[in-house]
Amino acid sequence: MTAIRLYDLQVRDDRRPSPFCWRIKYALAHKGLSYEAVPVGLTDIPAIAGGAHKTVPIVEEGGKTFCDSWVIADHLDEAYPDRPRLFGSPTERELCRFVELSLFMSAGRALLKSYVKDIHDHLLDKDRAYFRQSREKLFGCTLEELAGARAEHIDSARAGFDSVRLTLKGGAPFLSGAHPGYADYIVAGFLLWIASIGTAPLLKSDDPLLPWLDRVQGLYGGLGRSVPAGALAA
Amino acid sequence: MTAIRLYDLQVRDDRRPSPFCWRIKYALAHKGLSYEAVPVGLTDIPAIAGGAHKTVPIVEEGGKTFCDSWVIADHLDEAYPDRPRLFGSPTERELCRFVELSLFMSAGRALLKSYVKDIHDHLLDKDRAYFRQSREKLFGCTLEELAGARAEHIDSARAGFDSVRLTLKGGAPFLSGAHPGYADYIVAGFLLWIASIGTAPLLKSDDPLLPWLDRVQGLYGGLGRSVPAGALAA
Q1: Single pTM value for the model
Q2: In angstroms, rounded to a whole number, what is the distance separating the alpha carbons of residues B68 and B27?
């Protein structure tokens, strides 16, 4: 087996907030693969692999690089077919895509609006100017203006996870059923992201997402415990 | 093999609009099982199986009755394990539940508000008073008041399918991937329901849902073609 290197977004205090990197950290752990995590700032990404990729996660293995969490997950299932599969079937993979896309629609924009200034404030100094400029262009207003109106965006973002709450209400310990799977890693990635940088709680203290997130954080030797989930809930 | 009987909601002109019955008609076809469809009005349901069930679909087989689409789907996979499975894995089943629940959240209430008066108007005469009373209590206003404000509810209901559109944008012919599956039947059930009774179009004529729905309608000898999808789109 060749060495695997994962380029992982780094912010202040060596936190690693990227939701897309989180799902790949869980994917690597699911498959029992060890790797070297290489912390990078946003503005370091163009220097990786000759500027071939614009976002993290990037996985480097055997002289090749793989970018985009879906490309990486497919690569891992293809390169290590004898290890636990991330997608038990092509249908599972499509339905996991639906999970991601439905959460983008129901919660994604509201999450960004709620926490984009927190993300900015946690970035490494060298990354802030680029981030502020690109996000203010995206939203058509300043980060401070977004932060000022965030109470309603947080309410909307919280409600955007209702589909997950209802599914878990069926009684299974994980969104994927009796065992954790990629759909869990997708959703946990979103929440660990907010837990890493949020300065206002996203969830209520009795949210049924919290015991589920605690189970996910406890997987693989407590992989997700490096992020204190306490900041997520009021 | 014992005979299977499916109690299917009937409305005017012998239309069969129930979204939950549609997914079971597709489930039976997916498994290659033939059945006798028994048309029933809403107010006939308490007379079935000694009043054991409150909703359709109800499947009767070998002297037993099964109610609730999930119970029926599980029964079919359990009773006919040698036929194509509805759920290739327990994870697929959980993710299909997520598909249903996320669409309830994103589109369900807006669909009901948009089309509840159309549903009422298509019911058999004997079913209308019960339906009007229960739905006006649910929404706290008359069906006519809901119908008067439906343009914005239709916009909201249409947007509620964006997660499906985005998933299909990945290029697979079905929501479940290369082959149709229960997630397709869930979503198609919602659309065939509206196509059966709607008097205002839900979709735009260039909606990417339409070619997908056409594929689903064409399955199993054109099972869904009994519903003209033309009424769905402007």
Answers
A1: 0.97
A2: 13
